[in-house]
Amino acid sequence: MKNITKSLIVVLALFFLQSCAATNGTKEPASLRQELSESDITSRCAAALELGRMQDEESIALLAEMADSENPQIRKCAIEGLRWYEDPGFCQDFYEYWLGDPDKEVRKAAGIAIVANKCEGNVTRRADYAMDSQSCGYTQYFINNVQKAIAEASPVEQWKEIIPKLNIRDTIVDKGAPEEILQMRLNLAFAVIDWGESVAIIHSFDNLGSLEENRQNNLVDIEVYAKKQEYIKQFCPIIQFPDFAYWNKVITGEKGQDNQ
Fold first, then answer.
1. Would you say 135 and 239 are in contact if contact means Cβ atoms under 8 Å apart?
2. Measuring CA to CA, which residue among 235, 128, 237 is closest to residue 188?
3. Average of per-residue pLDDT across 96-118
4. Packed helices 72-83 and 91-100: angle between N→C axes, nearest 10 degrees
5. Contact present, 110 and 79 (Cβ < 8 Å)
6. Are residues 225 and 258 in contact, defined by beta-carbon separation less than 8 angstroms?
């Protein structure tokens, strides 16, 4: 009788645990992998995201296959799932989707994956449009000045006061420089100002207490200015932009203390 009672208790306990799992919405990886092949896109996307968060190794090939889907929503979900593996080996693929996918939402998801995984040192850029070192030197000069102005601005709109002081049109002129080079230098200078417009939003970021929490909480906004940085790097691959650790000092107020 005692053995029967013990067995009954074990069965009830297992049933209770399974019921709790179902209530909490948790599923086994094998069940989630099966959902990746379902016709319902919502289910497939939810499974892709959950498997990514689990970092389930057996799902990587399936998610990679989804990332090649003709359906942009499926590609987006696959990238969002792969992002959670935090594997630097995925960075180049994220990069190619970021710059080349025809769908805006897929590009956005890939860009966020690049920012979240800090992929900067794990991507290879083509040098098809590389400018001369002099042009890139001027561009770096503009970046450095805009960066400093944004960090020190209070209120934030004051950073724009640096723009007329840069004397852009006079600065970029070299004796004998072809008109097409001067025009490209001007375009890059305007691209730096446009980058500054997006970066300046960091002043409105909430400080959550740590660099990583501040990064993860603002991935969407960071991706916007990262995309503008990437445009400039297509022409000047070795140009240097401040990383998020620099901007985090602005968010936490440490940058102002540095300047006192």
1. no
2. 235
3. 97
4. 150
5. yes
6. no
> What token pair was written down for 216?
């993860």
pLDDT digits (tens, 9 = 90+) for 119-169: 999 999 987 889 999 999 999 999 999 999 999 999 999 999 999 999 999
For the record, the structure tokens of 7 come out as 């067995």
For the record, the structure tokens of 37 come out as: 């092949």
Q: How is 93-143 classified by DSSP, letter by letter?
A: HHHHHHHH-S-HHHHHHHHHHHHHTTGGGG-----TTPPPHHHHHHHHHHH
Give the whole-angstrom CA distance, residue 226 versus residue 221. Answer: 9
The pTM of the full predicted model, rounded to 2 decimals, is: 0.85
Q: In whole angstroms, give the CA distance from residue 210 to residue 192.
A: 28
Question: 205 in helix, strand or coil?
Answer: coil
- Cα angle 150, 155, 158 (rounded to 5 degrees) comes to 55
d(CA 133, CA 185): 11
- Residue 77, token pair as written in the block: 């979900």
Please answer whether residues 78 and 103 qualify as being in contact, where contact means their C-beta atoms are separated by less than 8 angstroms: no
Q: Name the residue type at position 162.
A: I
- What residue has token string 């897929």? 106
Q: Which amino acid is at 120?
A: E
Mean pLDDT of 230-242: 95
What distance in Å separates the CA atoms of residue 236 and residue 239, rounded to the nearest whole number? 6
Q: Is cis: bond before 155, omega within 30 of 0?
A: yes
Nearest to 131 by CA among 226, 230, 228, 239: 239
- Which residues, 6 or more positions from 35, have their beta carbon under 8 angstroms from its beta carbon? 43, 44, 46, 47
Residue pair 53/32 in contact by the 8 Å Cβ criterion? no
R_g (Cα) of the chain, nearest Å: 25
